Fold this sequence. Notes:
Structural class: alpha/beta
Number of helices: 11
Distance between the termini: 36 Å
Radius of gyration: 18 Å
Largest sheet: 8 strands, parallel
Low-confidence stretches: none
Bound molecules: adenosine-2'-5'-diphosphate
Strand order of the largest sheet: 3-4-5-6-7-8-9-10
Amino acid sequence: MNNIYDCYTLNNGVQIPCVAYGTYKAADGDNADIIRMAIEAGYRYFDTASFYGTETYLAEAVQNSKLPRESFFFASKVWKTEMGYDETKAAFQRTLDHLNTTYLDLYLIHWPLPDPDCKEWSQLDLETWRAMEELYQSGKVRAIGFSNFLPHHMENIIQNCRVMPAVDQIEFHPGYTQEATLSYCQKHHIQVQAWSPIGRARVLKDPLIVELAAKYQVSAAQICLRFAVQKGVIPLPKSSSIERMKQNQDLFSFEISAEDMYRLDTMPPTGWSGEHPDRQRVYF
Length: 284
Ligand code: A2P
């Protein structure tokens, strides 16, 4: 990979850019304006979700950019309350309407369980997946997958699916790399993406990250993002400042050595959000 427009090939042949812009929380600020800045900064792959409330802002920013729809890669997600066969189809149509588009590049099931007490999650996931498969087969979405699925959730789908999932989007950053999920995905040719690739403030202040940032003469955030790129994981950084949006694309002028990658792989756990699909949120 040499720039953010270079692509991985998904297991169905679709080309997916190696870095995206994450729009979660963009709704907290000046919405369309932040996404307009991200387009200006060069991002073309935008990760959104019905839950984020940013789909309409993305549509507005894209329309104002005057760039053709085909120059963008749109990913969105079906939320916990929208799971189920009919609900997923309706949610997908709402997402298309919000994004003012006729197709999505990628559509994901946001979480494997609507809540940790849901006993029927495996059946619910299969019904949701059946709707996703039909949307895919109708040509309205170019690739389908999930977010926050762990190997046991994925196994349920893989044992019963007609269309193989192409992507799993998980929390991933130095200090929380979910190795079991990563290796499961690699074995099944499922592309992993990283939400919160910069982790929390704690990750940016971690002594190893600070040391490597000085060594490679980049920022702590760039170390985290380059780490994802070298692991073959697509990072979805979000930022509200155009300088940091640009900095977060400057990931190809340096390379973390194999030794330092091992050190990052094995550093003490840190920066976990506390989110786990099978548990109520763990607060620190
Ligand atoms: P800001 O919007 O002020 O740039 P994550 O997605 O891992 O949870 O991290 C998101 C947070 O990281 C945001 O609060 C964002 O703040 C901050 N951030 C994004 N890029 C950088 C950067 N290059 N340097 C420092 N902080 C960054």
